[in-house]
């Protein structure tokens, strides 16, 4: 019996193990292993390329929207609207993403 397992990512490892367990439970196990195929380890540079970039200190639209919504619920709707117009916009989604950090800072000052 020949068993090969090819796992491309961590997401598939559980599925691969479950499939192997199912196959093994339905067959008799061999008494010896004929060969083992070694796979070259992934280089550190390749590992870093597959990881998503860290998004530390990134102000997102969701963060800004949550802060402005909280201020609006606290009765500061007029100040929130004025703050948005200071950035030359009629609505929050019109403000460029590069200005979110500055907008959030000013919102926290209200």
What does the model show?
- The protein has helices spanning 13-25, 44-50, 61-73, 77-86, 100-109.
- The mean pLDDT is 76.
- With 110 residues, the protein is mostly helical.
- The longest helix is centred in the first third of the chain and has 13 residues, at 13-25.
- The radius of gyration is 27 Å and the shape is elongated.
Summarize the structure.
The protein is built from five helices and no strands.
Order of helices and strands: HHHHH
Q: What average pLDDT do the residues reach?
A: 76
In one word, what is the shape?
elongated
Main structural class:
mainly alpha
Give the radius of gyration.
27 Å
Q: Main beta sheet, described?
A: none
Distance between the termini: 71 Å
Fraction of residues in H or I helices = 40-55%
What's the count of strands?
0
Q: What attributes characterize this protein structure?
A:
0% strand; mainly alpha; 110 residues; elongated; 48% helix
Topology:
Elements: H1 13-25, H2 44-50, H3 61-73, H4 77-86, H5 100-109
Helix pairs in contact: 3-4, 3-5
């Amino acid at each position: 019996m020949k068993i090969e397992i090819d796992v491309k990512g961590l997401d598939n490892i559980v599925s691969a193990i479950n499939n192997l367990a199912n196959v093994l439970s339905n067959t008799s196990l061999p008494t010896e292993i004929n060969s083992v195929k070694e796979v070259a380890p992934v280089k550190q540079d390749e590992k870093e390329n597959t990881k998503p970039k860290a998004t530390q200190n990134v102000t997102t639209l969701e963060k800004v929207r949550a802060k402005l919504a909280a201020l609006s619920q606290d009765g500061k709707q007029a100040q929130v609207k004025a703050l948005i117009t200071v950035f030359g916009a009629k609505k929050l989604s019109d403000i460029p993403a590069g200005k979110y950090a500055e907008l959030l800072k000013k919102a926290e000052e209200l």
